């Protein structure tokens, strides 16, 4: 008998066809009020779930007593109550690797756009305000040769270091849980403490996941350590930063600019003070949002889900303890 799968993200026709071949599929097209009601109605039968951008907490999971596997179409797993999933022996998988390069591209797009004021100055041209040669009032900052500071040296941090080191001749400094000798060798990167990085980097880039340990990691004290020339880039999660402290740092010119792809609350409120600031480049969480990468992520999630439902260990298992417990129970 085919297993029951609830999709809360539409997939491409080839992936939909593959899933239909192997499972009984219920598709929730959007996560508005109606979609959520449909999801709640489908959860009691669900054995597999696949989607993204939904907080899957214990309350929702309790509606799904038959659930065996959840495949997230994301690398970040902060939307999931991992302890509760593990307690229920539900396998959670994610989609690392396939989005690394694209997300690092987004990071560099934000570095370049905020340093060279690309959005602000393109808007000036569009508004018909390019009336004379650009002068110091509109100059930006160099990117090449400046110090690139990376907080969180995982896969995406490494891909950012690679771009900075080889593409822009940037000295790379980084802070993470522990030093990474291989990264130091490949990119001439130097490990330093968080305060040291905040004081020394020209570009301060956040690439670390949201966890209990990183929640609110960058707040008033940390912004106070940055220099007036510093540019702050966030491609990780909004909640790693105290957004009010960031707004104040930008308003008071404690830092020069920010390139932000993620926010405390998403979508970002139209009334956010961040949108009043010319020195902010804000994008709508586009880290991995290219045709190629989103398809690769969806394919990876389908592979993970089908493997889990077939009793195999998915390639990108987030909670191996759930797998061990299941095996022990057989
Ligand atoms: C992820 O995969 O976690 C990204 O933030 C989504 O683009």
From TrEMBL:
A Pfam family assignment: 2-Hacid_dh_C
Enzyme class: oxidoreductase
Gene name as annotated: ghrB
Family: Belongs to the D-isomer specific 2-hydroxyacid dehydrogenase family. GhrB subfamily.
InterPro entries referenced in this protein's UniProt entry, alphabetically: D-isomer_2-hydroxyacid_DH (IPR050223), D-isomer_2_OHA_DH_cat_dom (IPR006139), D-isomer_DH_CS1 (IPR029752), D-isomer_DH_NAD-bd (IPR006140), NAD(P)-bd_dom_sf (IPR036291)
PANTHER family: 2-HYDROXYACID DEHYDROGENASE-RELATED, GLYOXYLATE_HYDROXYPYRUVATE REDUCTASE B
Catalytic activity, as annotated: (R)-glycerate + NADP(+) = 3-hydroxypyruvate + NADPH + H(+); (R)-glycerate + NAD(+) = 3-hydroxypyruvate + NADH + H(+); glycolate + NADP(+) = glyoxylate + NADPH + H(+)
Domain D-isomer specific 2-hydroxyacid dehydrogenase NAD-binding: from-to ranges: 108-287
Domain of life: Bacteria
Source species: Pseudomonas chlororaphis
EC number: 1.1.1.79, 1.1.1.81
One GO cellular component, as annotated: cytosol
Domain D-isomer specific 2-hydroxyacid dehydrogenase catalytic: 5-319
GO molecular function, one term: NAD binding
Keyword NAD appears in the UniProt entry: yes
Record's protein name: Glyoxylate/hydroxypyruvate reductase B
Entry keyword set: NAD, Oxidoreductase
């Amino acid at each position: 008998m085919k297993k029951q799968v609830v999709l809360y993200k539409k997939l491409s026709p080839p992936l939909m066809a593959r899933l239909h071949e192997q499972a009984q599929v219920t598709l929730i097209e959007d996560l508005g009020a109606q979609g959520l009601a449909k999801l709640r109605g489908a959860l009691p039968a669900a054995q597999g779930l696949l989607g993204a951008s939904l907080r899957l907490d214990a309350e929702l999971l309790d509606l799904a007593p038959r659930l065996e596997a959840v495949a997230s179409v994301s690398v970040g797993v902060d939307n999931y109550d991992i302890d509760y999933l593990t307690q229920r022996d539900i396998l959670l998988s994610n989609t690392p690797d396939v989005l690394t390069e694209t997300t690092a591209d987004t990071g560099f797009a934000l570095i370049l756009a905020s340093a060279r004021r690309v959005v602000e100055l393109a808007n000036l041209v569009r508004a018909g305000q390019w009336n004379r040669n650009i002068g110091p009032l509109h100059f930006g900052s160099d990117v090449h040769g400046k110090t690139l500071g990376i907080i969180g040296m995982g896969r995406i941090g490494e891909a950012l270091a690679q771009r900075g080191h080889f593409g822009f001749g940037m000295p790379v400094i980084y802070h993470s849980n522990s030093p990474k000798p291989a990264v130091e060798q490949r990119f001439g990167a130097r490990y330093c403490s968080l305060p040291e990085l905040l004081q020394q980097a020209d570009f301060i880039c956040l690439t670390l996941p949201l966890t209990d340990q990183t929640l609110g990691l960058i707040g008033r004290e940390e912004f106070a350590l940055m220099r007036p020339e510093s540019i702050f880039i966030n491609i990780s999660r909004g909640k790693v930063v105290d957004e009010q402290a960031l707004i104040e740092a930008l308003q008071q010119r404690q830092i020069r600019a920010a390139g932000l792809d993620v926010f405390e609350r998403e979508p970002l409120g139209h009334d956010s003070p961040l949108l009043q600031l010319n020195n902010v480049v804000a994008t709508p969480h586009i880290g991995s949002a290219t045709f190629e990468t989103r398809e690769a992520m969806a394919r990876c999630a389908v592979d993970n889900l089908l493997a889990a439902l077939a009793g195999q260990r998915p390639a990108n298992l987030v909670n191996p303890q759930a797998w061990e417990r299941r095996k022990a129970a057989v």
